[in-house]
Amino acid sequence: MEKVVTLQIKASIYNIIYMIRSIPNPPMDREDVARFHRNLEKHLRGDFTEEERHQMEVRRVHEEAITQRIIENCGGKNPIFGY
C-alpha cells in the first residue's frame, strides 16, 4: 500500500495540489547499509577530522541564521511550535 501525502498551497486565486509520494523503504544494497553503520559509528565516537568539524560548524551557523530569519518573518514566533 502506497502512502500519498497531499500538500495544498493557496495561490492568489487557484488552489494548487501537489502529490508527494513517500517511500517508506527505499531500495538499499549491502554497501548502503555498511556506509550507514560506518557513519553512525563515526558520529557516536565523535571521530571527525578538523575539516569535517569546520564543515559541520559552518552548516550549523547557516541553519541557525535561516531559523532566525524564518522566526523574524513570522512576527517573532516559531511557526513550528507556535510561540
Strand order of the largest sheet: 1-2
Largest sheet report: 2 strands, antiparallel
Q: What's the helical proportion of residues?
A: 40-55%
Write down the secondary-structure element order.
Answer: EEHH
> What portion of residues belong to β-strands?
15-25%
| Protein structure class | alpha+beta
Which of globular, elongated, flat, extended, rod-shaped describes the shape? flat
- The number of E-state strands comes to 2
Instruction: Please report the distance between the alpha carbons of the first and last residues.
Output: 37 Å
Low confidence ranges: 4-13
Q: Quote the average pLDDT.
A: 80
C-alpha Rg (nearest Å): 20 Å
**Individual helix count:** 2
Task: Describe the model.
The protein is of the alpha+beta class. Mean pLDDT is about 80; it is low at about 5-15. A two-stranded antiparallel ribbon has the order 1-2. The longest helix is centred in the C-terminal third of the chain and has 24 residues, at about 50-75. The chain has helices spanning about 30-45, 50-75; strands at about 5-10, 15-20. It is built from two helices and two strands, in the order ββαα. The two termini are about 35 Å apart.
